[in-house]
Amino acid sequence: MNKRKFLKQSVWISAGAYIVPSVFLSSCKSEPKKEENMKTDTLAKSAFELPEIPYGYNAFPETIDPMTMEIHHTKHHQGYTDKLNAALKEANISGKTIEEILSMDDLPTAIRNNGGGYYNHSLYWDILTPGGTMSTTLKSKITEDFGSEEAFLNELTDAALNRFGSGWAWVVQDRNKKLDIFSTPNQDNPLMKMTEMEGHPILGIDVWEHAYYLKYQNKRADYLKNIIDIINWEKVEARMI
Ligand code: MN
Q1: How deeply is 167 buried, as exposed, middle or buried, from its count of CB atoms within 10 A (0-12, 13-18, 19+)?
Q2: Of the residues 1, 7, 36, 66, which has the maximum number of CB atoms within 10 A of its CB?
Q3: In 93-166, at which residue ranges do the beta strands (DSSP E only) sit?
Q4: How far is the CA of 90 from the centre of ligand 1 (A)?
């Protein structure tokens, strides 16, 4: 194999890493529909897949170093995704959206932890960007509900800073569509019935040490200050209902 061919193949393999499930699905579709294939097909379709992050691991090295981002995505987020799929199979749950699953009554612990991990990280990657600004519409909504943009950001920072141990800080819309801020432990989130407060999540900040320890060590406040600068406010606003 010459070098160019090798490189081309390596790139293809690496680009294909996240589309393996779809490749698997399409290969299933072309197989004759024997009973065994039908079973595999149904299983593959009901499984959640690790979402691609909408930028590279080196998108904002001053805020999140590439190694942290890669490990966080390919190990932690992938791990939650795989364990969620295993737990759903075990509980014989299929054909539901992740939102429907997380808002179920009596959520089994494995689905609570891994389904939360799957959903929370998908949201986290989606609402970051190398440079985002708030629209006037979002600014006025924030001012209406918190008094000022500064008060809103202070409350968000405090929620994230004061979460003891591992967890998440959230901005949600309550049932009256008012914006609210709180934090949850572990991989819990505002869709779950057992959380202290429920709501529709529009922004989530991961405050597990795995999200920042390589670059910031114990300095969670520094991580928070920087991460707030890379929030994709357009995406946050688009999630509002
Ligand atoms: Mn995490």
Answers
A1: buried
A2: 66
A3: none
A4: 24
- From CA 41, how far away is CA 187, in angstroms rounded? 30
Cα–ligand 1 centroid distance for 166 (angstroms) = 9
Query: Which residues, by Cβ under 5 Å, contact ligand 1, an ion?
Result: 206, 208, 211
CA of 173 to the centre of ligand 1 (A): 22
Element counts in the chain: helices (H) and strands (E): 12, 3
pLDDT of 42-58, one tens digit each?
444 569 999 999 899 99
Report whether 112 contacts 188 (CB < 8 A): yes
Cα(16) to ligand 1 centroid in Å equals 24
Length of the chain: 241
Domains of the chain (ranges; CATH) run 64-241 (3.55.40.20)
